[in-house]
């Protein structure tokens, strides 16, 4: 059972890493698409920190939306499995006839909170690109 728990931890860690890398890519694309806006805001006197906050808040919104939809789908599948046992296993190989489901609020909160915090922290570094953008060059950028 301990070996199985370690596999679950490794799989969840890999999923969170993939989510974080995907969010970094998404944020970089957003920054490139909004370079003109960044230049305009800086030309009007906005500080780098304020512009970075805009992108971090936008990214946290995207992460939250993804977590919400992912949780709804996951909870729906878990409830379906609990009620109907739709996902079957080969009893000779796994010693159980259907996939066991154990829903615990603490696991749910830790995974969601950890994912949100980890992905948000990963996004702080790419937002430093905003500090390197010159207002004049950004306004000309197309």
Description:
The chain has one domain (2-138). The protein has helices at residues 2-33, 35-43, 48-84, 91-94, 105-124, 129-132, 135-140. Helices cover 79% and strands 0% of the residues. The longest helix is centred in the middle third of the chain and has 37 residues, at 48-84. It is built from 7 helices and no strands.
Concise account of the structure shown:
79% of the residues lie in helices and 0% in strands.
Topology:
Elements: H1 2-33, H2 35-43, H3 48-84, H4 91-94, H5 105-124, H6 129-132, H7 135-140
Helix pairs in contact: 1-3, 1-5, 3-5
Q: Mean pLDDT, rounded to whole units? A: 88
Please describe the biggest sheet, giving its number of strands, its sense, and whether it closes into a barrel: none
Q: Count of DSSP E strands?
A: 0
Distance between the termini: 56 Å
Helix content: over 70%
Task: Supply the number of structural domains.
Answer: 1
- Assembly status: single chain
Give me the Rg, rounded: 21 Å
Which residues sit in consecutive blocks of at least 5 with pLDDT less than 50?
A: none
Using the alpha-carbon principal axes, give the shape: elongated
Derived from helix and strand composition plus strand pairing, the structural class reads mainly alpha
Number of helices: 7
Task: Provide key terms for this protein.
mainly alpha; 7 helices; 142 residues; elongated
